[in-house]
Amino acid sequence: MTAPAPRRIVLTGATGQIAPLVARHLTSRHRVVLTSRTPWRGAPRPGVTHVTCDYDVYESLVDVFRGADALFVVTNDPTRPEHDRNVVRAAVEASVGHLVKLSAAAVLDSAAHDLITEWQRANEERVKESGIPWTMVQPRSFMSHALGWAPGIRSSGITHALHPHSRNACVAPEDIAEVSALLLGDTGHHFRSYQLTGPQPLSAHEQSAVLSRVLGRPLRCRELTPEEAHTRYTRRYSPAMADALIASAGRQLAGAKAQTTDTVERLTGRPATTFAQWAAGHRDRFA
Ligand SMILES: NC(=O)c1ccc[n+]([C@@H]2O[C@H](COP(=O)([O-])OP(=O)(O)OC[C@H]3O[C@@H](n4cnc5c(N)ncnc54)[C@H](OP(=O)(O)O)[C@@H]3O)[C@@H](O)[C@H]2O)c1
Fold first, then answer.
1. Which is the closest atom of ligand 1 to the Cα of 83?
2. How many angstroms separate the alpha carbon of residue 284 from the centre of ligand 1?
3. In angstroms, what is the span from residue 232 Cα to ligand 1's centroid?
4. Exposed, middle or buried, 247 (CB in 10 Å: 0-12/13-18/19+)?
5. Atom 19 (ligand 1): residue with closest C-alpha?
6. How far apart are CA 282 and CA 260, in angstroms?
7. For residue 90, what are the β-bridge partners?
């Protein structure tokens, strides 16, 4: 059997968490173009071309998407749905062959009506109506949220969370990336959605205990009140986004995020990464 021909694969979100990890899985077989609004300032990556484009500048998207056999779409601002409209319209104009969308597991939760989930639902609908063969990647929360604890761990050995006993089947960004790369490099996954979780649901208390073992030092998890959590969220996000994150935490408290799937294992052929494995792999970022 001959291997499938190399494809031209364009990844948006070059400066984000997931797309650079996806690129690593693709460069040995495919031509990879990584895009972001900010020019790439790091060392050149073998097999990767960096191109800037801006979701606000429609023509810049058409130019970079043209000739793409597959496109990985990462957008990150629910208050700017015009970004998502521009990306899909440009993909249609550029005759992109396959669109893989980084969405979210919450879209499947009929009780979820916060800003972020409704935005991702609308994004999925737009992609499905575009006429381009699509695949949805629907991850649960990224394990890398724990990196937000690093300054507190370093300074005082304290982690923090709203509803710290509630569990989330969070997933390693590296697993999301490996699955996404498989979907982008293969035409066999058109018109399918893949919900990705880690192997077990964990609470913030349980994650803190794992980190404590991995780092070899005692850690204490402090419960945040909703008001404290909202204040923290608004340091990074708009008040509307902060409200959405509080609502999302409420659904976690009600048990909506504890279910696991076997998707990572089914597609990659190896078990999903545990939080302990992820934490050990990122130990120096906490130390
Ligand atoms: N975090 C979670 O737990 C979680 C769970 C489920 C789903 N998700 C979904 O995952 C996605 C976020 O993925 P991520 O963490 O890899 O992304 P990220 O780290 O937030 O990065 C976003 C990327 O989008 C680019 N971008 C933003 N505005 C742009 C613009 N106007 N033009 C061009 N590029 C622009 C950024 O480039 P610049 O640096 O140039 O701005 C950056 O590379 C979101 O859709 C989110 O809903 C997240």
1. 31
2. 24
3. 20
4. middle
5. 16
6. 23
7. none
Ligand 1, from 11, 76, 80: best to mutate by most atoms within 8 Å of Cβ?
A: 76
pLDDT tens, the chain, 287 aa long: 566 678 999 999 999 999 999 999 999 999 999 999 999 888 888 889 999 999 999 999 999 999 999 999 999 999 999 999 999 999 999 999 999 999 999 999 999 999 999 999 999 999 999 999 999 999 999 999 999 999 999 999 999 999 999 999 999 999 999 999 999 999 899 999 999 999 999 999 999 999 999 999 999 999 999 999 999 999 999 999 999 999 999 999 999 999 999 999 999 999 999 999 999 999 999 98
Domain residue limits, the chain: 8-140+173-196+259-272
Distance 217 CA to ligand 1 centre (A): 33
Please choose, from the candidates 202, 215, 194, the residue with its C-alpha nearest in 3D space to the C-alpha of residue 279: 215
Give the separation between CA 121 and CA 132, rounded to whole angstroms.
17
Superfamily of domain 8-140+173-196+259-272: NAD(P)-binding Rossmann-like Domain (3.40.50.720)
Please report the atom of ligand 1 found closest to the CA of residue 53.
33
Residue 197's closest CA among 211, 176, 166? Answer: 176
What's the CA-to-centroid distance between 44 and ligand 1, angstroms?
21
